[in-house]
Amino acid sequence: MRPTLLPLLLLTAPALAQITAAVPCVADNTLYQDALGNTSNGSGGSIFAGTTATGAVRRAVLRFDVAGALPAGATIVSATLSLHVLQTMAPAPVPASGHRVLQAWGEGASVAPGNGGGGTLAATGDATWLHTSYSTSFWTTPGGSFVATPSFPLELPNTGFATVTAPGLAADVQLFLDNPTQNFGWIIKTDEVQAATAHRMDSREGATKPTLVVRYLLPGNNGTWGTGCPVGAGNFGNSFVGTPTGGTTIQITQSGAPAIAVGTTFYSLDLDPVGIIILPGCTVHLPLNGMLPGGIYVTNAAGAATSPFPVPSGFPGYLVVAQSIVLTNNALGFVVSDAALTCLQ
Questions:
Q1: Domain check: are 198 and 325 in the same one?
Q2: CB 213 within 8 A of CB 25
Q3: pTM for this structure?
């Protein structure tokens, strides 16, 4: 975790926008519940999560090369994980969760026959229900050693893509980037109570590989997130102008807001990429328990405004997020901009 910057929740904007990168999946496997712990499918085309019709548990493990795909010192804005579901007996989508794994595990050369649902004899180095690496290294807890609190929720459909963008997912990616030796990936599991909920998904050897797409900023970069509330024929926009170098002053600008109206800006050190929808196409992306208000401004006849932002010194790499609010005569009495992002330099 990065230390908390309590005072000075300050901001900046468009020097360079956030960067999007696809992080490759470098290992995946299935932990097949069995007493001997000698079942795996390390190089097979499918991974599994859920419970079979006979009540046997399946858990998928995945690891992505975060440190190899992202530059050191980057600040993660958001992360999106996507898995492709091929088959299930479940009649409706099944809730699942992703948990950060706490031990290194392996992907051997085993390939299960057919669709892979029953697994096959584990090969050297495979992860199994009992082993992190068959047959010499073991999980601290059978079924995988992982953080009990999920990092993110995930709904597994009957077929098609299971996709999630969540703050906990982004936080794990930041941890993996800052501490590569702690990157053991995630385990995907259901509540494992109801039978016949096992889902077969493409592995990295399959036709549609698991994907992890990350948005990040480097120190000195600015960006935006989301879409501001509709105002007339456009949307309320918010941005930072200038390079956020400590000790300088840059500008935060509003555009497309209601004309001749009073507004203010709220700041935070965290982005909620999913956010809280307050109107269709209008979302608050600041954590409600971590916001600080800024000064008051008045928009001009074109719905624009600007105000200075003094950049604090000594906090390189901190992400600062801002959303502006302007009073108006709609049902809520206000409109909200998109989120402006800056990474202090």
A1: no
A2: no
A3: 0.92
> ω before 135 within 30° of 0 (cis)?
yes
Residue where one domain finishes, among candidates 217, 241, 260? 217
Calculate ∠ Cα 301-304-307, nearest 5°. Answer: 130
Rounded CA separation 328/43 (Å): 58
User: Which amino acid would we find at residue 54?
Assistant: T
- Residue 67, H or E segment: helix 66-69
Tell me the per-residue pLDDT of 125-155, one tens digit each, with 9 for 90 and over: 999 999 999 999 999 999 999 999 999 999 9
Under 8 Å between Cβ of 261 and 283: no
Domain assignment of residue 4, yes or no: no
Which residue segment(s) compose the domain that 303 sits in?
222-343
Reported as half-sphere exposure (CB side, CA atoms, 13 A), residue 96 has a value of 32
Q: Cα–Cα distances in Å, from 324 out to 4, 257, 266?
A: 22, 10, 6
Q: Would residue 14 count as lying in a domain?
A: no
